[in-house]
């Protein structure tokens, strides 16, 4: 064995001796009289003594094999006592497995006897070599027996407590798995086993903290595992196993590859290294590892304390360059199930759930990707979390929308309910390791959804308060404007009267009077409109001709921009003042968005039971995101100094008359704003009769 390997082996075993001794002393200081506690302390201390002897004496000393047998016997006795406790009341099961324990104990005795004999024989004799081979085979059989007994104890342990002993049993399984590989290689190529003998010390040192992770609690069914420590410890064990497999592959290749052994070994090492570099960073592999650890080592899938703290930190600690609240909420819920992406949908005015924002969701959703109002109402009443792969059995005629079932990434729809009111929902993408939702997922997601809904509801309330304050400021500023306009009208009226009395020059008098009277007329018209608007006085919808008001608005704006009116429409049920106000807002926006000389078209038409007025421009257009999030949002304007009230007020006026405003636009391609108003009953009846 080389100097470096000797150094690693000696100090690795010395470190393992210190760690196992510390664990044994820790248990003894607890003064627990339970037999399994005393046996655990004894097994730890005997393992420490064996490691210490190997670190000073080496693997070739006479007592090395005997010490290893004593170590194995102590651990097997602990397993037997734990099995007796775990199978209390099932005597038949204990008797059946007792024969296996007896057989392994017999192997240990035979192995000890063999080790004593072959060390007394001359090294060159055939019997000496044969007994060494027998000893190695017996070591392999002992390791196999230990692995079988560990597996049996694990499956025999009560299912609800199985995760509490998994760490100890996992460490013992790793120890005997390493021994099995060590003696298997030594059986075929003794000289290639030196590396594994040396690395056994560091491997045992790694297993010591794994065993000690839960020793704060009582053993025998009470070994509590830290999920983080379990994942990291098993990851280290996987790395160690990777090294063992690498060495074993090198030995076997040397035995079978002949003169090309070196070349094949290099190729094998290169292949395994590349495989490790590809697999270890894989999100899918990490997710699979996490799922398997949670499934086999713990009673519950989630570490609720850790998940809840992470959930709160994701939403409540935005930082300097944080995502918007909606994205943080989607991410916080998605992180719970390891979903790689999520979509936040919020309740629209018609009761449906519509797209609001996304986290990590790539690609475009299909047109009409909404949760219809009937299903949203059902979710609100029941609180269901919709498993896309398995709809709830009580859904009746209301089922998940087709686009969601066809979207392969869609996995679960989590409702966001606050005080029995559906705020929205989060659509989760499938985790890297696809699985079915179970009761623990439903409980966890339901609680997270309610918490997320409270954050969103608070944010919406704060936004509504901010809007109300800005509306108050808006009204206060216009009250000042009205006051100034009144003063200006009074001044101009006085000036007009004075000019009539004192103008000596007829031409001057005519021009002055004309200019002043025109200004007075304009100011009075503005004052009348503002006063009427502030009073909120409106007429009830009545049959009216849209052609007349449309052409009138077009004439007033045609002096500043080319405007055309096409088509015709029958009588609509509306308020003329509100229709005029809507058209003024929409037409002014179209003029502002259009280049000088680019015409704006007002197109009249009908569609079913609706009368349509379309305002069409060839201006700069808008993005779908701007239309969805900002166009009808008050105080959100793309114009410098604009209040962002026009589109918001136009839609509100249309809805007050039972109509609506549809928007179609693409950047660089212009926009089409369509005012839809219900036809008057006489025109509807006439159309049906025709």
Report on the structure:
Helices cover 63% and strands 11% of the residues. It is of the alpha+beta class and 690 residues long. The protein has 3 domains: 3-297, no CATH class; 311-464, GAF domain (Beta-Lactamase), CATH 3.30.450; 542-689, 2-Layer Sandwich (Heat Shock Protein 90). It has a 5-stranded antiparallel beta sheet with strand order 2-1-5-4-3. It comes from Sphingobium chungbukense.
Notable traits:
690 residues; five-stranded mixed β-sheet; Beta-Lactamase; five-stranded antiparallel β-sheet; alpha+beta; single chain; 3 domains; Heat Shock Protein 90
Overall outline: rod-shaped
Major sheet: order of its strands?
2-1-5-4-3
Q: Which oligomeric form is depicted? A: single chain
- The low-confidence parts are 216-225, 532-537
**H/I helix tally:** 21
Instruction: Decide which structural class fits the backbone.
Output: alpha+beta
Helix content: 55-70%
In short:
GO terms for molecular function: phosphorelay sensor kinase activity. 63% of the residues lie in helices and 11% in strands.
Would you spell out the secondary-structure blueprint of this structure?
Layout (H helix, E strand, L loop, with lengths): L2 H27 L5 H23 L4 H25 L4 H28 L7 H31 L5 H27 L5 H19 L14 H30 L4 H19 L3 H15 L6 H13 L8 H12 L5 E6 L5 E7 L13 H10 L3 E2 L14 H5 L3 E9 L2 E9 L9 H64 L3 H30 L6 E4 H12 L5 E5 L3 E4 L1 H18 L6 E8 L2 E8 L6 H8 L14 H11 L3 E7 L3 E9 L2 H9 L1
Parallel strand pairs: 7-9
Antiparallel strand pairs: 1-2, 1-5, 3-4, 4-5, 6-8, 9-10, 10-12, 11-12
